[in-house]
Amino acid sequence: MGKEITSRSQDYSQWYIDLVKKADLAENSDVRGCMVIKPYGYSIWEKMQQALDKMFKDSGHVNAYFPLFVPKSMFEAEEKNAEGFAKECAIVTHYRLKTDPNKKGKLMVDPDAKLDEELVVRPTSEAIIWSTYKRWIQSYRDLPLLINQWANVVRWEMRTRLFLRTAEFLWQEGHTAHATQQEAIRETEQMLNVYAEFAESFMAMPVIKGKKSEGERFPGAIDTYCIEAMMQDGKALQAGTSHFLGQNFANAFDVQFTNKEGKLEKVWGTSWGVSTRLIGALIMAHSDDDGLVLPPKLAPIHVVIVPIFKNEEEMKKISVQAELIAGTLRKLGYSVKFDNRETHKPGFKFAEYELKGVPVRIAIGPRDLENGTVEVARRDTKTKQVMPIDTVAEAIPALLENIQENIYQKALAFRAFMMTPVDSYEEFKTVLDTKGGFVLAHWDGTAETEASIKEETKATIRCIPLDAKAESGACVYSGKPSTKRVLFARAY
């Protein structure tokens, strides 16, 4: 199979694009900056959705849906949020087209159909949701309100890359309302932990939990918590965020409730989200020059069975055994594909499923039937072993668990290698330029130093790790006192 994938070490960016396209995950749309998520890519997103949705519901949240359009005045209500997203907003100004009298077969905007108020196509939904919460919340009995929505949003990005940054993307966004500050902070932290558990348990991707610096916070938030992951090119990727909004949106939309003592109070809020960017993270964290390496928990196909045959009679005998194995595994909840296409040779199929990252491949030929065995290949290590045909189905679940754990441990070891503490600015710059990865360095806590480092090195403070230990030191840039190290990196 002619995969024609650029080597990861030769050109990481092109390697990534090649993988996305060759593995049939997505392609560029005819709409500038937008993508078409193809069935195989969307099936990975569905797996992510199913896992996350269960985690949300298990923690007491329910799903709802809110409008795509936000009146401009409503969007402007929380000033910092509006300013933070202003440059990325798409705006609807008219509600109708009409035939252009000067150009046959062409349409034009109907000047008589101008909207009384322009509509923002949501880049995020805090404004429309908090304007709704004003109607829903009257009493302490209405709280907490724990709502999530699965939706699309539009952020008019100028430089796009499939999954990682597109003008329109899919995501979930949770928006919760609480009676007390402490309860809202607990919610913010709880959802950060949900995201971290998902990243590590399902994506096999180790993450660092932390708080954003003031300059990197979500517009309109008091605090932003995040999970940061390390990609194989030494760049960081923000994989999820959870925001403590304080009473900012309650103040903007006058969302009040009567407490148990009969007094009016403003509501405390949170918001949190992850997007289809996670598919990009999944690709970049684990894959190689032969294609995707998918953790079994998120793989659309867990096991593929490839028959090796010369004639119809051999195919019939192999099919009987293949269907028995597939049937047993399906009853156990695994997705199995028996590729009985006669239009493609086994070698083509082997390469195809390696490219698509299918965790386990079983090959069965006439000699295997005679010996009562099958050949089992695992995608993560590219190793093969011979197993008894009668018990192979029973052995697959443990093998898949081993593959999931091995992928995680490999990524964890890589991240540990790419974590470098430094004590001087020269060392800081050298590590970034020669090794990359996470750089643990003292910072004086000022926005000025943060901005200078970013301008000079393109590295940002990814987070202030929640588990950072108190440690006296001097800021690598200013030399001023510092009490803990923060996490710097160049990032996507």
Descriptive report:
Helices cover 35% and strands 27% of the residues. The chain has 14 helices and 27 strands. A hairpin with a 6-residue loop joins strand 25 and strand 26 (481-482). The two termini are 31 Å apart. The relative contact order is 0.11.
What's the short version?
The chain is of the alpha+beta class.
Which key features would you list for this structure?
single chain; 492 residues; alpha+beta; eleven-stranded mixed sheet; five-stranded mixed sheet; 14 helices; 27 strands; 35% helix; 27% strand; globular
Radius of gyration: 26 Å
From the spread of the alpha carbons, the general shape counts as: globular
β-sheet strand percentage: 25-35%
- Order of strands, main sheet, comes to 3-9-10-16-13-12-11-24-27-23-22
Work out the helix count.
14
- Overall strand count: 27
Distance between termini?
A: 31 Å
Low-confidence stretches: none
**Helix content class:** 25-40%
Write the layout of secondary structure elements.
Blueprint: H1 12-22, E1 26-28, E2 35-37, H2 39-58, E3 62-63, E4 69-71, H3 72-75, H4 79-85, E5 90-94, E6 97-99, E7 107-109, E8 114-121, H5 126-136, E9 145-154, E10 168-178, H6 181-201, E11 208-211, E12 223-230, E13 236-246, H7 248-253, E14 256-258, E15 264-266, E16 268-275, H8 277-286, E17 303-307, H9 312-331, E18 336-338, H10 346-355, E19 360-364, H11 366-371, E20 373-378, E21 384-388, H12 392-417, E22 419-421, H13 425-434, E23 438-442, H14 447-457, E24 460-465, E25 473-474, E26 481-482, E27 485-489
Parallel strand pairs: 3-9, 17-18, 17-19, 22-23
Antiparallel strand pairs: 1-2, 4-8, 5-8, 6-7, 9-10, 10-16, 11-12, 11-24, 12-13, 13-16, 14-15, 19-20, 20-21, 23-27, 24-27, 25-26
